[in-house]
Amino acid sequence: MTTLSLPEPIAAYFAADQQKNAQALAHCFTAHAVVQDEGHTYSGIDAIKAWKAAASTKYTYTTEPFALEQSDGQQVVTSRVEGNFPGSPVDLRYRFRLERGLIASLQITV
Predict the structure, then answer these.
(1) Which CATH number belongs to the domain containing residue 73 in this structure?
(2) Which residues, 6 or more positions from 44, have their beta carbon under 8 angstroms from its beta carbon?
(3) List of residues 6+ apart from 11 with CB closer than 8 A
(4) Who contacts 83 (Cβ-Cβ below 8 Å, separation ≥6)?
(5) Structurally, how many domains does the chain consist of?
(6) Is residue 3 situated within a structural domain?
(7) Is the peptide bond before 89 cis (omega within 30 degrees of 0)?
(8) Are 63 and 81 within 8 A, CB to CB?
(9) By residue range, what is the domain housing residue 83?
């Protein structure tokens, strides 16, 4: 993984994602966090945990964050994602909004 100086909750998110650990990943979020991915919205810890568990079961993939910028109060990470999913490899943009040391919202786009 490319060495970036990511804020702690974002670094923890990518580490848990690499390990396919939906439980650890869910702990990176606030209780009322919202994730938007592939046209779907997941609200709350249980929905986020289920979303990540389903994605980890459906696909085998790796992520390699390589860029970080700030935009409109959000941390935007660009990551190369490669795996057995349609369109692989792809560079995805992860827009994180942090709140009190946790992820309050995440929007994943191409």
Answers:
(1) 3.10.450.50
(2) 31, 32, 33
(3) none
(4) 59, 60, 61, 62, 89
(5) 1
(6) no
(7) yes
(8) yes
(9) 8-109
